[in-house]
Amino acid sequence: MNPSLGPTILPAPLPEAPGTYVLLLQLRERAPIHIGRLGLIIFQRGWYAYVGSAFGAGGLAARLGRHLQAKKKPHWHLDYLRALAEPRRIWLNTAITPLEHAWAAALAAGGARPIPGFGCSDCHCHSHLLYYRTAPRNLTGLGAGLKSYTLATPSERSDTAPVPPSGA
Ligand SMILES: [Zn+2]
After folding, report:
1. Which end of the chain is more exposed for a tag (fewer CB within 10 A), N or C?
2. What is the pLDDT along the chain (168 residues), one digit of tens a residue?
3. Cα angle vertex 90, ends 88, 91, to 5°?
């Protein structure tokens, strides 16, 4: 298998329907990252839950597929963080109403620490990115109909890059 394909999604595939999602990323080391117009933010090592919605063409599968790609021209705030952080888990639902603003507020109310202004260029939320020191097992307050996907890390995958031929 081509190792550049990125993380394995279990269970595959993601829905092509529109909906709302949370993408959980792991940042293994503390890092200063320039986040577009937000400027420089110091990200502690740990876990970051990004809340978004996908109501365009291709729905959740298209949007999340883009988020899962590490290398691309940055467009959203998340793209800058994604360049250094690994996607580990996805929660989503396919309700016909965008729930991202309510979900972002619910995660903050649940005790996660918001990164002010992140992912909020088009809304009035405090933040769409929540920090957890340790991996959250389950997200509470997101209502019914939630589906969860786990993403294998490169080191956990059996189809990682082949060992280069010796003597090359
Ligand atoms: Zn919002």
Report:
1. C
2. 444 455 667 767 899 999 999 999 999 999 999 999 999 999 999 999 999 999 999 999 999 999 999 889 999 999 999 999 999 999 999 999 999 999 999 999 999 999 999 999 999 999 999 999 999 988 889 998 899 999 876 655 554 445 555 544
3. 145
d(CA 74, CA 91): 23
Domain chopping of the chain, boundaries: 21-155
Distance from residue 50's CA to the centre of ligand 1 (Å) = 11
CA 127/CA 111 separation, integer angstroms: 13
Q: What is the pTM of this model?
A: 0.86
Q: How many residues does the chain have?
A: 168
Per the omega criterion (within 30 degrees of 0), is the bond before 11 cis?
Answer: yes
